């Protein structure tokens, strides 16, 4: 039986349903991901429509069911990630983050830690921090949800934690300099790029400050993460394809 509850949540996706309604997926802090039926939100005078815009966080009053559709009744304490909403570049990165979170967790599974991580990444992005770095951190820390755990703290062969390292797809993790010969196709990444990947895999999003990263290093990190998500995770979201196209289009860089 449905129960009326107040749940804090972040909008994941919105789609039209029938003539005047919408289906809204919300990542809630204490009820997991849920799909909500929202009646009449496509009508001009809908009171709840502003609360289900993309990149919005609010406290939602809803009938929560254990299975099937839930029903959204009202909302309060509405917060918009306005910078993200107004900037197509940030919009693309935030959409990718939300899409990854949706893919990583089954509906109805409560995960307050992941909810907080999404919330903090969106907040920091909205405040003007580098979206590429925030996405990289999120990607690295989401890997365990897909059952992927590359060896990042120590060499995949000998567990050595000091010295120079490179990333190896063959060994699914970093290799120390003594074992580089074991994989002639290792990434040949810079020391800085590997250091940052190791940092991103373990850093607390609440404690790390802003990080300045050169364009060339970002490209190295992006190449490694793309390989991990393609070869080890096995997903490539449409939102990621859009980012790839966007980054190769000067028009978007100028927005």
Automatic annotation (TrEMBL):
GO process annotations (BP): DNA recombination; double-strand break repair
Keyword 4Fe-4S applies: no
SUPFAM superfamilies: ArfGap/RecO-like zinc finger, Nucleic acid-binding proteins
GO cellular component terms attached to this protein's record: bacterial nucleoid
Domain DNA replication/recombination mediator RecO N-terminal: 4-80
Gene3D superfamilies: Nucleic acid-binding proteins, Recombination protein O, C-terminal domain
The keyword Phosphoprotein is annotated on this UniProt entry: no
PANTHER family: DNA REPAIR PROTEIN RECO
Function noted in UniProt: Involved in DNA repair and RecF pathway recombination.
NCBIfam families xrefs: reco
Protein name: DNA repair protein RecO
Organism of origin: Isobaculum melis
